[in-house]
């Protein structure tokens, strides 16, 4: 029975709530240039924590707490179920038909109508003893159920914040690594350009040029790997924290 009430109140809250849960859109990192990657600035953790309350996981836990709070209010007023009121009202035209006769008159019919109204009012009391003595206990149990739902909501929120912190720390570290590897790539490109000119002038051998080319390729590969890891961390962070990282 309680499971049915959960579903009913949950649907009622979804239809009456003014909030709208939408899928989190992830920023398009493919359009970022290398310079823009180096200028990525993460929002403060406090902003990410607050926005994370819009996540479906948190909202589901919050809806459950709201349902339990409404059920607690219902239990507090459940004593009203011991009393009942009833009433009715009638209004209409009533007809009366009669026959009259005596020894000197032949029988004849008379018919009359008139408007009449009426009403009845009543009250009743029915108090099952098990419900009466368990009234305070039901309220206390519902308070505990509500507290459990609120604690579950906080546990979910702490889990979300923990995930945000992990991804935030990872992304912060990867931003610094990407900046260092970007500098290494710039130096490798400059060195290779110098080697190309020296090779064209005949001052170095082709093997020296090949070595610098290999260094350039390794620097590019390391840079792209760091950019991939950073992009993945930022996209996960956006989904968890419901916050766009790239300012449009």
Automatic annotation (TrEMBL):
Recorded GO CC terms: cell outer membrane; efflux pump complex
Molecular-function annotations in GO: efflux transmembrane transporter activity; porin activity
Subcellular location: Cell outer membrane
Family, as annotated: Belongs to the outer membrane factor (OMF) (TC 1.B.17) family.
Highest taxon listed in the record's lineage: Bacteria
Organism: Bacteroides faecium
Predominant subcellular localization, coarse grouping: membrane
Keywords of this entry: Cell outer membrane, Membrane, Signal, Transmembrane, Transmembrane beta strand, Transport
Protein name per UniProt: TolC family protein
Pfam families xref list: OEP
Entry keyword annotation includes Transmembrane: yes
Signal peptide extent: 1-22
Keyword Transmembrane: yes
């Amino acid at each position: 029975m309680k499971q049915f009430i959960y579903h009913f109140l949950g649907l009622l809250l979804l239809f009456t709530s003014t909030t709208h849960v939408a899928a989190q859109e992830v920023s398009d990192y493919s359009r970022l240039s290398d310079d823009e990657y180096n200028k990525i600035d993460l929002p403060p953790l406090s902003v990410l924590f607050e926005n994370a309350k819009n996540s479906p996981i948190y909202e589901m836990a919050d809806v459950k707490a709201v349902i339990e709070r409404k059920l607690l209010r219902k239990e507090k007023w459940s004593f009203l179920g011991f009393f009942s009121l009833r009433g009715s009202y009638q209004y209409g035209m009533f007809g009366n038909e009669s026959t009259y006769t005596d020894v000197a008159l032949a029988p004849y019919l008379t018919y009359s109508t008139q408007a009449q109204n009426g009403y009845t009012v009543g009250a009743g009391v029915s108090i099952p003893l098990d419900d009466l003595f368990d009234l305070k206990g039901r309220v206390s149990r519902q308070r505990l159920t509500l507290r459990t739902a609120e604690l579950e909501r906080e546990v979910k929120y702490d889990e979300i914040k923990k995930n945000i912190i992990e991804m935030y720390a990872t992304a912060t570290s990867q931003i610094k690594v990407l900046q260092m590897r970007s500098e290494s790539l710039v130096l490798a490109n400059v060195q290779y350009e110098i080697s190309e000119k020296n090779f064209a002038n005949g001052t170095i051998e082709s093997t020296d040029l090949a070595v610098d080319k290999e260094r350039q390729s390794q620097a590019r590969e390391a840079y792209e790997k760091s950019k991939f890891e950073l992009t993945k961390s930022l996209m996960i962070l956006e989904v968890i924290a419901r916050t766009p990282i790239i300012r449009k």
